[in-house]
Automatic annotation (TrEMBL):
PANTHER family from the UniProt entry: POLYSACCHARIDE DEACETYLASE, POLYSACCHARIDE DEACETYLASE-RELATED
Protein name in the entry: Chitooligosaccharide deacetylase
Function: Is involved in generating a small heat-stable compound (Nod), an acylated oligomer of N-acetylglucosamine, that stimulates mitosis in various plant protoplasts.
InterPro entries per the UniProt record, alphabetical: Glyco_hydro/deAcase_b/a-brl, NODB_dom
Any matching Pfam family: Polysacc_deac_1
Domain of life according to the entry: Bacteria
NodB homology domain ranges (all copies): 65-284
N-terminal signal peptide: none
Species the sequence originates in: Plastoroseomonas hellenica
Length: 303
């Protein structure tokens, strides 16, 4: 029998202690996905239209003006509600941004950066990289980094691919240089350093369950409290594990066009209210978590 193609053992029930700052029992990373203008669209010269927005619908042969308008809501309206919510509670997030969207509307990176948030890279178009030709993927990474750096004044140090990365993505990130972390994994509650990774590169797992993408059709979230109740449940469970000596990390995913709607923004505000003034929780940008993990690894916490 051939060996397993991937590590399914993990920490075997004995994860390393992350030693979060302030002896926190949980690290929370809010990730705001900025994709507006990077969705596939015949109107933007792409090969097809994006089929998923507030409804599941495939329009072929013509630009989908309905889909384009749904995405535009996030850039025109949603981002300001999201930014104001974080400001109201004094919290910082990571804005995971598609290069094409930032190139077309630079303020979507410039304003989060001005307010102290991290702006990281989320590909050029909002698309999977699985099967992408290597030379094209190399160019996509370079173009995305350049667009974000021009708009925000800061070189992005994090990467996350929509859906599946290619078998080359991580190696190409390493070859490009300058990346502190990538989030192309969903298999753990803690960061780790991969075998063969260059010095200074961390894998920060992401999550699709504690994510407002589940407001999309059939995703299970309808009311704002569906999202906040689910995320708060995860927070309290992980705090319980942290108090038993096993602190973890939680990613909470947001999208401007989803959580930025007036009936949904209260879900984010409820989470921020729930974790306010709780020193046992460390809310941090992803780059801060990766930098901390490197200090843990350097002290013998490599995992």
């Amino acid at each position: 029998m051939p060996p397993a193609s991937r590590d399914l053992l993990g920490h075997a029930g004995r994860p390393p202690h992350p030693r979060w700052p302030g002896d926190a029992r949980l690290a929370i990373s809010f990730v705001v996905n900025v994709e507006e203008g990077a969705e596939l669209s015949l109107g933007s010269g792409d090969e097809r239209n994006e089929p998923v927005h507030e409804v599941n619908r495939i329009l072929e042969g013509a630009p989908d003006l309905c889909m384009e308008s749904h995405f535009a809501y996030g850039a025109r309206v949603g981002i300001w509600r999201v930014l104001d919510a974080f400001d109201a509670f004094g919290r910082k997030a990571t804005f995971s941004s598609c290069g094409r969207c930032i190139a077309a509307t630079p303020i979507l990176a410039a304003e989060p950066a001005r307010r102290g948030h991290e702006v990281s890279a989320h590909g050029w178009r909002w698309e999977s990289h699985a099967g992408m030709e290597e030379a094209l993927e190399r160019a996509v990474i370079a173009a995305t980094v350049a667009a974000i750096e021009r708009a925000s004044g800061q070189r992005p140090v994090g990467w996350h691919t929509k859906s599946s990365a290619s078998v080359n993505t991580r190696r190409l990130l390493w070859e490009h240089g300058g990346f502190l972390y990538d989030s192309d994994a969903y298999d753990d509650d803690l960061p780790r350093i991969l075998p063969g990774a260059p010095p200074g590169h961390v894998l920060l797992p992401y999550a699709f369950d504690t994510n407002d993408m589940r407001f999309s059709p059939g995703g299970g979230f309808v009311q704002a409290r569906d999202f906040s109740d689910y995320c708060i449940g995860a927070i309290e469970r992980l705090l319980k594990e942290g108090s038993a000596g096993s602190p973890k990390m939680l990613s909470i995913g947001l999208h401007l066009r989803f959580i930025g709607r007036p009936a949904r923004i209260g879900g984010l505000e409820a989470i921020l209210e729930h974790i306010a003034n709780r020193p046992e929780i460390w809310v941090a940008r992803r780059r801060d978590i990766a930098e901390h993990w490197l200090t843990v690894a350097g002290a013998g916490g490599r995992a």
